[in-house]
Amino acid sequence: MDNQLEPIVRKLQADFGATVEEFRGEAHLTVSTERIVATLEACRDQFGFELLSAQTAVDYWPKESPRFHIIYQLTSVTKNLSLTIHAPVNGSQPEVPTVSGVYDSANWREREIWDMFGIRFVGHPDMRRILNPPDADYFPLRKDYPLGYEEPQFSFNFDEIQLGKPNPKE
Amino acid sequence: MTQIQEVSVDEIKHLVSERALSGETMLLNMGPQHPSTHGVLRLLLELDGEIVVNCIPDIGFLHTGVEKNMEAKTYQKAEVMSDRLDYMNPIGNNLAYVMAVEKLVDLDVPARAQAIRVILAELQRLNSHLVWLGTSGLDLAAQSMFLYCFREREIILDIFELVSGQRMMTTYIRPGGLWRDVPVEFETAVRDFLKIFPKRIDEYEALLTKNPLFMDRMMGIGHLTREDALSYGCTGPVMRASGVDWDLRKKRPYSGYEQYDFVVPTRTEGDNYARYLVRMEEMRQSVRIIEQAMNKLPMGPVRSENRKFVPPPRSEIGVSMEALIHHFKLWTEGFSAPANSIYSAVESPRGELGVYLEGDGSPKPYRVHWRTPSYENLGILPVLSKGFLVADLVAIIGSLDIVLGDIDR
Amino acid sequence: MGVEQKLANMGVVTTTLENVVNWSRTGAMWPMLFGLACCAIEMMAAQASNYDMSRFGMELMRPSPRQSDLMIVAGRVSKKMGPVLRRLYDQMPEPKWVIAMGDCASCGGVFNNYAIYQGVDEVVPVDVYVAGCPPRPESLIHAVMTLHEKVKTEKFKDLAEKYG
Question: What is the reported pTM?
Answer without folding.
Answer: 0.92
